[in-house]
Design a protein that fits this description.
Shape: elongated
Strand content: 25-35%
Number of helices: 8
Distance between the termini: 43 Å
Number of strands: 15
Helix content: 25-40%
Number of domains: 2
Structural class: alpha+beta
Order of helices and strands: HHEEEEEEEHHHHEEEEHEEHEE
Radius of gyration: 23 Å
């Protein structure tokens, strides 16, 4: 769906013409609309614009049910897609937890995708089964899971921290050796299974042949101003359970691979050293 933002005034008209949403409206001003989704008299979600007549640029959600907003999605450049996701905890200032196209932290990603639709021109189109209330309620429903996912990442150490970095970055680059020449390509498969970090490929690919001849590889990825480099030896694992787990975690692979075919191949990282760097902190070295 193409994202076309609407103004507060336009949103008011649509809500006024929808009996269900009209009942939920608890606040309606020149710059803000607030809805009560659960009927407790307190606003659960707010849509606002920085200036009168401007398009909606901020979505605020009450995750705790105490009448205070603590999840904010801001669209600063006006393209209809949130640029930042911010959390407010214990009355403190907003803490940015994700940025723009890198907003891929667990259920946060689902929330942002839903929020994109909330400000789209067709968000009230009943033929698509989309309503402002339904989507806002979906975002709130997953709030607890969103916070759990964020807490996991904040507290992660060792191999868990490496896994979350590669998983949330979505794309990393795997470098191998082909004879005396370097080769590199983008990868996206990553799985933490029984204490080992796995990647997946197909035996028919050149990368598989290169790993077979020289299993020492390097991996690099970038996310949110930090980058990770991993040096490791890849060890093939023919365990069917691992292949099943990989395909279940990344179901799009099922169109090309099966746990029982002769092509699917998984490797785990042995004697690995990961280094996480940024311009604002000292390098962190993790061995696993």
């Amino acid at each position: 769906m193409e994202v076309k933002k609407i103004s507060i005034r336009e949103a008011k008209k649509r809500i006024k013409n929808d009996p269900e949403l009209s009942k939920m409206l608890v606040r309606s001003g020149w710059r803000e609309i607030a809805l009560d989704l659960d009927g407790d008299g307190m606003a659960d979600v707010s849509f606002s614009s920085e200036k009168v007549g401007r398009k909606i640029d901020t979505i605020a959600v009450d995750l705790s049910g105490n009448g205070e907003y603590n999840l904010y999605l801001h669209d600063f450049d006006g393209n209809g897609i949130p640029d930042t996701v911010c959390l407010v905890e214990d009355g403190e200032e907003e803490q940015v937890v994700a940025f723009g196209g890198e907003v891929e932290l667990g259920f946060i990603n689902l929330g942002v995708r839903v929020a994109n639709l909330l400000v789209a021109e067709d968000f009230m189109n009943r033929e698509l089964g989309i309503s402002l209330a339904d989507l806002a309620a979906y975002l709130k429903m997953h709030a607890a899971a969103m916070l759990v996912e964020l807490e996991k990442r904040e507290n992660a150490e060792g191999i868990d921290k490496v896994y979350y970095f590669l998983n949330d970055a979505q794309t990393y680059y795997l470098a191998t050796v082909d004879g005396d020449k370097p080769r590199v390509r983008p990868f996206g498969t990553i799985l933490l299974y029984e204490g080992k970090l796995y990647i997946q490929t197909g035996k028919v690919k050149d990368v598989s042949k290169q790993i077979s001849e020289n299993p020492f590889v390097e991996i690099c990825a970038y996310m949110n101003g930090s980058w990770i480099r991993i040096a490791a030896e890849l060890v093939e694992d023919d365990n069917r359970d691992v292949k099943v787990a990989m395909l279940e975690k990344m179901p799009s692979l099922k169109a090309m691979y099966s746990a029982d075919d002769e092509n699917t191949q998984v490797f785990w990282m042995k004697d690995a050293t990961a280094t996480i760097c940024s311009f604002t902190s000292e390098p962190e070295v993790i061995s696993f």
